[in-house]
Amino acid sequence: MPTMGNLQLVCRFVNRWKNDGNNAEFRRLIQVVRDLRAQA
Known about the structure:
The chain is mainly alpha-helical and 40 residues long. It is built from two helices and no strands. 60% of the residues lie in helices and 0% in strands. The chain is globular, with a radius of gyration of 12 Å.
């Protein structure tokens, strides 16, 4: 059973993008996407 706070629901594209990478880097990239969307 997953531990709360240790679960990320992602689509197949994002799951592939995240792959086995560093979680901190993944979160940083997601923030970049959010910032770009906010500017649009």
